[in-house]
């Protein structure tokens, strides 16, 4: 069974869009047996570009049902079906995003008609839905509207099924369903909460653990994934357990500490480091520059360790922007080109020696002071695991020493009471790097300074 769909959205930053129209055709391989076509009233404005492209206006969606009013119907029409779409990842992401707002983990297997079309029609001039449909003689009405695009995708999918002489699409569907159904009872019992997931073998040994923004979703991804790591976990695990942490900061800290304590045999990174990249300070012509490099933990002037190159580049860009540093000096802009930020007035010209090193370095020092742990004693306060509960992370004399939970403020008013409620963690540069990252992004509710 297939659910061929198309979603139209408001536009905006990834993760912040809302659905404005949905069309789903439930297809049994021979005929459409059910369908859902509806405008959706979004919570945010529709971008002007989207209005022009789709001809969907704020007035049209004003009286349309909100997503939560359609949610049950969407679950029903896609139940037991594989989602089929042209660039289906976008449509699937939008559905998961909307369901997440409702506290529900939405999971379906997917088939994307784009790579299937590339394989079936290698001579096509384009694989965009409109151009490919025209080239194949598939009629398209209401282009860039959900119903029109979903109907065109359905006709394309029918053609792909006809050309699939080896029945590879059907086999793909059956395999995805088999793997998904096998582990459904495991991940469907998991909560949609922030925390850790532990995979244990028959001997009750933890073979793998990971932090998760959504425990249920992370468990499902691991058990149904195609990676070598997922394959190894599926072969060896016997049971799965979880722990809710209530917030990201403690999930990061607890993950690092648990890996040291439990030493699981399966890990994400085979190089031995979960934080393989280092941000460090380097002096160039008197200017303090921030550099990102791999496996340089012993390099002088390290700032903190970072999980991945992509995350490191993002953090470095945010630091450069917030403290008005030079992207060219920090290695963000190409070395062989002029500094565009200087040309548009967003850089003070340190890369051209038009700003003195003392002036520039003062802003670098402001960043370093913001994330500094040395000679500091404080609590980072965040949400707890349940309503009415809060959490703390304690940095004592420059080192993260533990975390805990409390309900009343007097329960953390002095060191003795903090220690009574605290779970101790081993001294670890990775954990300190996590704390520094949260200090920089200010992803905490409150910072309480304690006497040294």
TrEMBL record:
Mind listing the GO biological process terms from this record? DNA replication proofreading
The Exonuclease domain, residue ranges: 1-166
**SUPFAM superfamilies linked to this entry:** Ribonuclease H-like
The task this protein performs is described as:
DNA polymerase III is a complex, multichain enzyme responsible for most of the replicative synthesis in bacteria. The epsilon subunit contain the editing function and is a proofreading 3'-5' exonuclease.
Q: Oligomeric state and partners? A: DNA polymerase III contains a core (composed of alpha, epsilon and theta chains) that associates with a tau subunit. This core dimerizes to form the POLIII' complex. PolIII' associates with the gamma complex (composed of gamma, delta, delta', psi and chi chains) and with the beta chain to form the complete DNA polymerase III complex.
Q: What is this protein called?
A: DNA polymerase III subunit epsilon
Q: Which domain of life is it from?
A: Bacteria
Query: MF terms per GO, please?
Result: 3'-5' exonuclease activity; DNA binding; DNA-directed DNA polymerase activity
GO CC list:
cytosol
